[in-house]
Write a structure and sequence with these properties.
- The chain has 489 residues and is α/β, with parallel strands linked by helices.
- It folds into three domains: 197 residues, 3-Layer(bba) Sandwich (FAD/NAD(P)-binding domain); 153 residues, FAD/NAD(P)-binding domain, CATH 3.50.50; 112 residues, Enolase-like, domain 1, CATH 3.30.390.
- The strands form five sheets. Strands 1, 2, 3, 4, 5, 6 and 17 form a seven-stranded mixed β-sheet that branches. A six-stranded antiparallel β-sheet has the order 18-19-22-21-20-23, with helices on both faces. Strands 10-9-8-15 form a four-stranded parallel β-sheet, covered by helices on one side.
- Strand 9, helix 7 and strand 10 form a beta-alpha-beta unit.
- The chain is globular, with a radius of gyration of 25 Å.
- The structure holds NADPH dihydro-nicotinamide-adenine-dinucleotide phosphate (NDP).
- It comes from Pseudosulfitobacter pseudonitzschiae.
- InterPro entries: FAD/NAD-bd_sf (IPR036188), FAD/NAD-binding_dom (IPR023753), FAD/NAD-linked_Rdtase_dimer_sf (IPR016156), GSHR/TRXR-like (IPR046952), Pyr_nuc-diS_OxRdtase (IPR001100), Pyr_nucl-diS_OxRdtase_dimer (IPR004099), Pyr_OxRdtase_I_AS (IPR012999).
């Protein structure tokens, strides 16, 4: 019997997870509608992974040009032209958004460029005034960055804003020690911005392997990022002095800016902060400093506000995330949720897998729980960190382990006179010999961990790695040539 609903499936959210589920379901003959209030592609494509990675590439050329002279090239380092890069970036994002729109249209998904909220468990109200009904609803609205609760937090920017800056600031303070804070500290430093980073905990990248995150922190400091751990902000205020103290210099809040008639921060972006102009920051370590821009990278929360979710019976957790079972089903039997809005593992490829598992479960008569175990990931700092499985600390709590490490100066940068170090690390179960964790800090560690991840996901043992022949000369050959444990625990 034909369905009496307008759609078999209505997806709210046109990011990576929602688009994948919608178009695959539509390809199976399911009648699918999808609403997106912003741009198609979502966080990853429009204001996350993709523009971030392009900025990573942009930021690495300065080192490449500097190293080139050691290799005999006569290349002069010039200034970085943000508008040139930004125009190209915007063109690329427009292109990608069109690709996403095209994928949906070609698979037969009917799209609505508006915000959607639930009226009841089968009815969606669009902010263009239309109402649509659907047998099944999939929420894939992602998350959004949050500012901490400090006075004048609205003076600072968040990651969504960084791609839209009219000019690069001369100086920036980044608050936070997670993925976004550390990646942008490295990117902006590479683009020539004076970067200061405050992290409230003892070491950045909490939750990752201690030795690996320690090396990343050390490398960031050596490159010139002014990283302060055990430090947080107390308040922000506009720095209204005509002649502000030198950016990054100590200054007393409200005290006269003093002596210099020098106009500070030449080239400063007056529009960079959300209110424009330099910002005076009071920190927990005492004293005050002035920065052109303050960037909050203090976490993201699921986008579940004002969607009518709780009214129809969808339960939310303490962090506003949608609570789902192993099959991404909410407490309402026809409403499912995938991706960052469920705050399970907040990574694009995971959202895509959750979308695929939803399609298998609901439309292919193949109930598929989402596998969240042994997910490889990378943090695009400089150097990058690639990681899969347990940290040394977590593994040692679980069972007896052997730890294999190799730390060295890689050939390419050592030849150019750089002191950069690389870390290759394997955590091995003493009992089963299975590799429980692999942590790589190196240029292109993201590329390496993707491949090591296949073997580790397959359950490879240390001996499987040992009998794999090295590719010489590469950095990653160390992963199969470490013979003696560095320590046991
Ligand atoms: P994270 O949760 O990773 O980091 C948030 C940081 O902000 C932490 O260091 C946290 O400190 C700190 N923080 C939180 N609240 C406050 C506060 N009130 N005052 C000061 N500091 C605070 O979030 P991100 O925004 O960096 O990233 C969000 C998610 O996006 C990640 O979990 C990841 O899943 C994903 N992502 C993945 C990337 C990748 O795969 N390469 C890249 C970027 C994002 P504390 O440690 O003490 O809690």
């Amino acid at each position: 019997m034909a369905s009496t609903y307008d759609f078999d499936l209505f997806v709210i959210g046109g990011g990576s997870g929602g688009v994948r589920a919608a178009r695959v379901a539509a390809g199976d003959g399911v009648r699918v509608g999808l609403a997106e209030e912003s741009r198609y592609g979502g966080t990853c494509v429009i204001r996350g992974c993709v523009p971030k990675k392009l900025m990573v590439f942009a930021s690495e050329y300065r080192d490449t040009v500097r190293d080139a002279s050691a290799y005999g090239w006569d290349i002069k380092e010039g200034p970085f032209d943000w508008p040139v890069f930004q125009n190209r970036l915007n063109t690329e994002l427009d292109r990608l958004e069109e690709v996403y729109r095209g994928l949906l249209a070609n698979s037969g998904v009917k799209t609505f460029d508006c915000r959607a909220r639930l009226k009841d468990k089968h009815t969606i109200v669009l902010d263009n005034g239309e109402e649509k009904t659907a047998k099944t609803i999939l929420i894939a609205t992602g998350g959004h960055p949050v500012r901490p609760d400090v006075p004048n937090a609205d003076l600072g920017i968040v990651s969504d804003d960084i791609f839209k800056l009219e000019k690069l600031p001369k100086s920036i303070l980044i608050i936070g020690g997670g993925y976004i804070a550390c990646e942008f500290a490295c990117i902006l430093h590479g683009l020539g911005v004076e970067v200061t980073q405050y992290y409230r905990g003892a070491q950045i990248l909490r939750g990752f392997d201690d030795e690996a995150r320690g090396l990343v922190a050390e490398a960031m400091r050596e490159r010139g990022i002014d990283l302060h751990v055990g430090t947080n902000i107390v308040e922000l205020c506009p720095d209204s002095e005509d002649h502000a103290p030198h950016v990054g210099s100590d200054a007393a809040m409200g005290a006269p800016s003093g002596q210099s008639s020098e106009v500070v921060n030449p080239g400063t972006d007056a529009q960079a902060g959300s209110r424009g102009g330099p910002i005076r920051v009071k920190s927990t370590i005492g004293g005050e400093k002035v920065f052109d821009v303050v960037f909050f990278a203090t976490g993201r929360v699921p986008s579940t506000h004002d969607m009518g979710l709780e009214e129809v019976g969808v339960k939310l957790g303490r962090g506003h995330e949608i609570l789902v079972d192993d099959y991404s089903k909410t407490d309402v039997d026809n409403i499912y949720a995938i991706g960052d809005v469920t705050d399970r593992v907040n990574l694009t490829p995971v959202a895509i897998r959750e979308g695929m598992a939803f399609v298998e479960t609901v439309y292919r008569d193949n109930p598929t729980p989402v596998d969240h175990d042994l997910i490889p990931s990378a943090i695009f700092t400089q150097p990058e960190m690639g990681t899969i499985g347990l940290s040394e600390e977590a593994a040692a709590e679980q069972e007896e382990i052997e730890v294999y490490t190799s730390s060295f100066r890689p050939m390419q940068t050592a030849f150019a006179g750089r002191d950069d170090r690389v870390l290759m690390k394997l955590i091995v179960s003493k009992k089963t010999r299975v590799i429980l964790g692999c942590h790589i800090v190196a240029p292109n560690a993201g590329e390496m961990i993707q491949l090591a991840g296949i073997a580790i996901k397959m359950g490879a043992t240390k001996e499987d790695f040992d009998r794999t022949c090295a590719v010489h000369p590469t950095m990653s050959e160390e992963i199969v040539t470490m013979r003696t444990p560095t320590r046991t625990a």
